[in-house]
Write a structure and sequence with these properties.
Chain lengths: 176, 194
């Protein structure tokens, strides 16, 4: 009975994490790995890992920072791991899993356009700059926390932030 | 031509307050313009990221996470059970192979026709007639050497044998110890998962 109550409370905690931070972690992962399916897989893994290590989670009240640090680490690990999976083309993928009703086609076009713009903006950044800016945007983390997550000095993070934003600025000027 | 180091402050005697003010204001406006462009870039990035935000199916995500966790727990349990089974087998094999100096072979006269042989260290069989142990004693004349007082002793001995045998077949303490080890293993496994 006590065990059931404990499990119910833990499930509530997990639900709360997903409800409050799920969107941010999803956005972070999608922007970082830029593959919808990989991001979905990593998103589930982030919450699994976070839930499994919940006893060791000491920074109470900083759940988003905790979840984003796990997400960042998982994304980096995945990028370093040799690829074993086969990448399916859009047509092949649609054959396996047909798309659902997602609104009128012009919405899809607009989404594709913003997606392309975001991809080109993120391409203008190198990996540390991208991680710094995304952690700052989605986690609203302090630079010192980002430095801790990236494992580099504070000044380096500040430099990544500034250079990343300057690169983005240049890209925006070129576009306009 | 006189070259000056821009990083070096000008000598105080030659300081021109107007020039210093102008330099400061230029630096400030440069910093402001850079800060402005950084803010602009940040706003552009934020706009793109917000525009690309996809709706999240929270219920599906929670279900998927719970399924994943359940699968892992099941797998961990199977690993621990397999470890425990192999541990038990190894310990049981060792125990069976252990030599026992005090073991006795007792043929109980009442069960002699079935040929049951009981091995154990705590069997009271000292009162049995050695003749009953011989293969020919079964058919010769067991009734002639049997004393009626031995029935009680035999019953007691049989009870003890049964208790001892049961103790061997269900080593509760040992099982409890193994179960404790399994729990510890599982806890360690769970802690070291991340």
């Amino acid at each position: 009975m006590i065990e059931t109550g404990r499990l119910a409370r833990q499930r509530e905690l997990l639900t709360e994490w997903v409800r409050v931070h799920g969107q941010a972690v999803q956005g972070f992962l999608r922007a970082l790995v830029r593959d919808r399916d990989v991001a979905e897989d990593l998103l589930q893994e982030v919450f699994c890992r976070a839930w499994q290590a919940r006893d060791r989670y000491a920074d109470a009240g900083k759940e988003r920072s905790y979840l984003l640090r796990i997400a960042d680490r998982l994304a980096c690990d995945r990028a370093r791991r040799p690829r074993r999976e086969r990448v399916l083309g859009a047509a092949e993928w649609q054959r396996i899993e047909p798309p659902g009703e997602e609104g009128p086609p012009w919405e899809g076009l607009a989404r594709d356009e913003t997606c392309r713009q975001l991809a080109s903006a993120l391409d203008a950044l190198n990996e540390p700059q991208r991680r710094t800016l995304l952690l700052r945007f989605y986690g609203d983390l302090e630079f010192s926390e980002i430095a801790k997550a990236l494992g580099c000095p504070l000044n380096t993070v500040l430099s990544h932030n500034r250079r990343g934003l300057l690169a983005l600025r240049q890209l925006l000027q070129e576009k306009s | 031509m006189c070259e000056t180091n821009p990083k070096q402050p000008a000598p105080e005697g030659n300081a021109d307050p107007m020039a210093a003010d102008q330099e400061n204001s230029e630096r400030r406006s440069l910093e402001n313009s850079e800060q402005g462009s950084l803010d602009e870039a940040w706003a552009g990035l934020a706009q793109l990221l917000n525009a690309n935000a996809m709706p999240l199916n929270r219920a599906a995500l929670i279900d998927a996470v719970c399924r994943r966790l359940a699968r892992r727990t099941h797998h961990r349990r199977q690993v621990v059970l397999a470890l425990a089974a192999s541990l038990l087998a190894a310990v049981g094999g060792t125990w069976m192979a252990m030599p026992r100096d005090d073991a006795q072979v007792v043929v109980l006269p009442s069960e002699a026709p079935s040929g049951k042989v009981t091995i154990g260290p705590n069997v009271k069989a000292a009162t049995l007639n050695p003749a009953a142990l011989s293969p020919t004693a079964e058919t010769s004349a067991p009734q002639s050497v049997w004393n009626d007082d031995w029935d009680d002793e035999l019953a007691l001995a049989k009870e003890e044998v049964l208790v001892t045998e049961e103790g061997w077949r269900q080593p509760a303490d040992w099982l409890a110890a193994v179960r404790e080890q399994m729990d510890e293993l599982e806890a360690e496994f769970r802690e070291g998962a991340l």
